[in-house]
Task: inverse folding
């Protein structure tokens, strides 16, 4: 009887459970709690959290193995059939869809099909604050190098400041794939915490009278002299023109930005490409999000995550995020010093790529100080330009590093 119980016990995974396993389960449950209960980026945190859980079930063979285990001589890898057979379905998904850099551009295509560049085109001067908010990326890159991270790792860490999950993942795949799990978790966690981080940083750098700057009143007092007469045509020309310029100046950003602009183009053309736009923002985007979340979560095994370097990534990511928000706010404050037509600094705070959450949070914050101060459309101008800015910044980092 004792032998039977011993064999039954050996069949289970109880003997393989360690304190590190339990810590990873707790982390997975926290991510699931944020996604399910708090509704912080549930479309991403739920699959990522469950992927972490799957990867840390002892004996489940669902965790992503190190690239050295699937590597062959001559900088080659085992074929996908061998990877699936030896390491399981999650490794098949990771090495075919994530490691190749396939999914982030596909997700950007879906995001583009959901994006309206109208607010930015109507308020082009506000787009510059989306560029100013990218300061967090380059500031943390420099700080990370000084703290001992190599240049590739520092660039991947800094890109968290762009507040764009697919961009962070794509950059990390190219530069520091061994840090993909921690960086993806940090990027999406801070994106989910935008409702907490943006108000905290804004209150630190803004005065009460700045929260009350009413953009609509400023428009009435100082009306714009340049009005786009045919916005529909401009919205069709814009992705083609911008894609061409960016492809010439920063070609390495084309995989992300090009797919974003293509998705937007098929949306703006109208009925003739409606099916393409619906597919991009519907089935394709949802499928890509599921596989991305699960595979990225599965990289978070205890051996990878529970290290001092991971802690540095979590802290550094937060600093990058906060600096980006502060950079956008300070850029507006400097602008206001030289302009009669004032801009609410909350517009600068939304220069992140966390669309449209950052804009909604900034708008709600402005309404708390003045119930009539609706600034959503102005925030979206900066917010959307932040998506473009982070993709361009990623291309620059990939080219330089």
Result:
């Amino acid at each position: 009887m004792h032998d039977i119980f011993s064999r039954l016990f050996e069949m289970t995974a109880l003997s393989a459970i360690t304190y590190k396993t339990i810590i990873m389960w707790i982390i997975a449950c926290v991510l699931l709690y944020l996604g399910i209960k708090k509704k912080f980026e549930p479309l991403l945190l739920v699959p990522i959290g469950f992927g972490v859980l799957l990867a840390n079930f002892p004996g489940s063979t669902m965790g992503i193995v190190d690239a050295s285990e699937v590597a062959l001589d001559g900088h080659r890898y085992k074929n996908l059939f061998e990877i699936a057979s030896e390491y399981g379905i999650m490794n098949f998904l990771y090495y075919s869809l994530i490691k190749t850099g396939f999914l982030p551009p596909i997700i950007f295509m879906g995001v583009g099909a959901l994006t309206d560049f109208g607010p930015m085109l109507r308020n082009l001067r506000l787009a510059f604050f989306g560029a100013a908010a990218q300061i967090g990326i380059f500031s943390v890159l420099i700080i990370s190098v000084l703290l001992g991270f190599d240049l590739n790792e520092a660039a991947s860490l800094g890109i968290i400041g762009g507040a764009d999950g697919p961009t962070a993942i794509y950059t990390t795949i190219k530069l520091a794939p061994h840090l993909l799990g921690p960086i993806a978790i940090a990027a999406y966690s801070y994106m989910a915490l935008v409702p907490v981080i943006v108000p905290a940083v804004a209150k630190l750098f803004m005065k009460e009278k700045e929260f009350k700057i009413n953009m609509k009143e400023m428009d009435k007092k100082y009306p714009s002299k340049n009005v786009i007469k045919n916005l529909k045509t401009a919205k069709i020309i814009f992705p083609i023109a911008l894609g061409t310029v960016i492809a010439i100046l920063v070609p390495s950003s084309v995989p992300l930005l090009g797919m974003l602009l293509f998705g937007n183009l098929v949306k703006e053309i109208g009925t003739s490409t409606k099916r393409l736009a619906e597919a991009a923002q519907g089935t394709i985007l949802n499928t890509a999000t599921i596989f991305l979340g699960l595979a990225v979560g599965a990289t978070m095994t205890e051996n990878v995550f529970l290290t001092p370097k991971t802690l540095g990534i979590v802290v550094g990511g937060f600093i990058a995020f906060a600096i980006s928000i502060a950079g956008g706010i300070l850029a507006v404050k400097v602008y206001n010093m030289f302009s009669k037509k004032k801009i609410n600094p909350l517009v600068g705070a939304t220069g992140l790529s966390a669309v449209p959450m950052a804009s909604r949070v900034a708008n709600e914050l402005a309404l708390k100080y003045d119930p009539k101060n609706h600034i959503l459309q102005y925030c979206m101008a900066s917010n959307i330009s932040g998506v473009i800015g982070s993709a361009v910044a990623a291309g620059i980092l990939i080219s330089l590093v």
In short: Strands lie at 71-72, 76-77. The chain has a mean pLDDT of 87. The first helix runs from residue 2 to 11.
